[in-house]
Amino acid sequence: MIFSLPAAVMLASRGMVALPKRRLGFWLVIALCAASIPTILIRFHKPREDWRAATNVILSSARPGDAVVIYPFYAVPGFEYYLQLNPRAPALHPFTQPYYGPGD
Question: How big is the CA angle at 59 (ends 46 and 64), to the nearest 5 degrees?
């Protein structure tokens, strides 16, 4: 919905100017923006990435000599950290993308 933001801002500014008292229009726009803050805070959040559980799922079904494809590259440190913590982890062959390789 970000593509509709310019139209919404233009519509709000036209409405603000059209009101008989300009100060009332300004405070009305501020009130409408403030009313949208709870929705933004509730709906838009980054999901928690549970690398421990993901690594445990992979290691629980892995056998020695298996290969693991780790993509994107920023997932490698989390996977390697929890792999080192597991003393019974099988020997895996990880395939990863190079860090910021050409064309990325």
Answer: 145
